[in-house]
Write a structure and sequence with these properties.
This protein starts with a helix and ends with a strand. It is mainly beta. It has a single domain, classed as Neuraminidase, CATH 2.120.10. Helices cover 5% and strands 38% of the residues. Strands 5, 6, 7, 8 and 9 form a five-stranded antiparallel beta sheet that branches. Strands 14-15-16-19-23 form a five-stranded mixed beta sheet, with no helix packed on it. A four-stranded antiparallel beta sheet has the order 4-33-32-31, with no helix packed on it.
Length: 451
């Protein structure tokens, strides 16, 4: 990325200025989206690879993509974590550095032990045994814009059957400022190289502003792709997307991208809004949940299948949400009716009925300004951390541990301070966790000292 060092400063400044500069409040509180049953449609409109629309049949009942192994419910409750911050210390062990504005790290689930590091400027590097590849795995720098501090190449996820089919998906900001989800395939003759010519556009969503692009992609335990989209940017849900049933922005989408590779995507037959409407108004069938502001990073617990979302707040509060993908009804996370667990604006009153509130939030104090969602620890190296969720803040560099104790009460504790500009966490094939310092271009492993 050009002018990287100046942009590191610019990003922090923009983040703080944006959050601090959002003092004006909405004049009218939006109505919350709540489902009411309606007659299902038999035709769904999908975006084509060129960005136009074509009418294609909906995914039939009973169709399902190739599934990630679904967690099997335990006959007995999962015991609470044994983590005790009073006697145990969390630390960071350096893994690698020398990256240019890294924003994500992941693995392919193919047993190769490779890490894939996403740089905001448009490159994906392979990291093997702590050494960065000399040649990028993928270079899409010519397709993107990173002119805005929240734009660029932002997300990467590998197909559940990547080891067999070589497919993966990226999330980037196109040169026209649109959010693009595209599928690629690895080069059959070179497993450490992507085939640039294999690009196939899955989704293109116009963005009215350069911020709140979100950027994460994740496959759920149901095998479907979850695509988080911010509210369109600006401040105070300026474009009124958070509670708008006709907009994809401000939502979590759930798409079948593996059931028929010849089309961009299918609508899963059990998407909650496929057979529901809102006060007589149709809700887009792609939508799984509404009321999100900027779900920058989210993940699935590989044991319980629960979805954890770090949703970036407005000017006062950051929030962490946790829900089951088997949630029986459409979910409304509440933005802009609420910011965290507080009415928005926080000196107002609001109707919380029908909203899914965060499991925790935290205030913009002590340098905090922008949450970075993380992962539930499910590795084998530190059994005491099993079930502990780790997340951080981009501005303060604080890392929190969050868990439920034996009485099901939530406990939250800062376990690392000043870890840099935390742009993302990552998880390796074994379930060990990592953290990225975007400003320092470094990646570290989360470790536990029980002495």
């Amino acid at each position: 990325m050009s002018n990287c060092r100046s942009r590191l400063v610019l990003l922090a400044c923009c983040c703080m200025a944006l959050l601090a500069g959002c003092a004006s409040q909405p004049s009218e509180r939006p109505a919350a989206i709540r489902p009411a049953m309606s007659t299902p449609t038999s035709i769904v409109v999908y975006p084509t690879a060129t960005g136009t629309s074509a009418a294609l049949p909906a995914s039939p009942e009973g169709d399902a993509p190739s599934l990630i192994p679904t967690p099997t419910p335990s006959p007995t409750p999962i015991p609470p974590p044994a983590f005790d911050p009073a006697t145990m210390t969390i630390g960071l062990e350096p893994l690698a550095d020398g990256f240019d504005a890294p924003v994500f790290i992941t693995q392919a689930g193919d047993g190769s032990g490779r890490f894939f590091v996403v740089e905001q400027g448009g490159l994906i590097h392979i990291l093997r045994d702590g050494v960065k590849s000399a040649t990028p795995f993928l270079d899409v720098a010519g397709l993107i814009t990173d002119a805005g501090s929240e734009q660029g190449l932002l997300g990467l996820i590998f197909d559940p059957d990547f080891a067999e089919n070589g497919y993966f998906f990226i999330n980037y900001t196109a040169q026209d400022d649109a959010t693009v989800i595209a599928r690629y395939r690895v080069d059959p003759a070179a497993p450490d190289q992507a085939d640039v010519a294999s690009a196939f556009e899955i989704l293109r969503v116009e963005q009215p502003a350069s911020n709140h692009n979100a950027g994460m992609l994740a496959f759920g335990p149901d095998g479907y792709l979850y695509v988080g989209l911010g509210d369109g940017g600006g401040a105070n849900d300026r474009y009124e997307n958070g509670q708008n049933p006709a907009a994809l922005l401000g939502k979590m989408l759930r798409l079948d991208v593996t059931g028929d590779r010849s089309v961009p995507y299918l609508i899963p037959p059990d998407n909650p809004w496929r057979e529901a409407n809102w006060d007589g108004v149709d809700v887009l069938d792609e939508i799984w949940a509404v009321g999100l502001r900027n779900p920058w990073r989210y993940s699935f617990d590989r044991v319980t299948g629960e979805l954890w979302i770090g949703d970036v707040g407005q000017s006062k509060f950051e929030e962490i949400n946790r829900v089951s993908v088997r949630f029986p009804a459409a979910i409304n996370f509440g933005w802009p009716i609420m910011e965290g667990t507080h009415c928005f604006p926080d000196d107002d009153t609001c109707e919380e009925a029908g909203l899914t509130l965060p499991v925790t939030d935290y205030a913009h104090a002590d340098g905090n300004c922008s949450v970075t969602g993380g992962y539930v620890y499910r590795g084998a190296a530190y059994p005491a951390l099993a079930g502990v969720y780790f997340f951080g803040d981009y501005c303060s560099g604080n890392i929190w541990a969050l868990w439920q104790d034996g009485a099901d009460a939530w406990q939250k504790h800062i376990v690392v301070e000043g870890a840099g500009s935390i742009s993302s966490f990552g998880e390796d094939e074994a379930g060990e966790l990592y953290v990225i310092d975007r400003g320092g271009g470094a990646i570290s492993r989360i470790v536990l000292d029980e002495s």
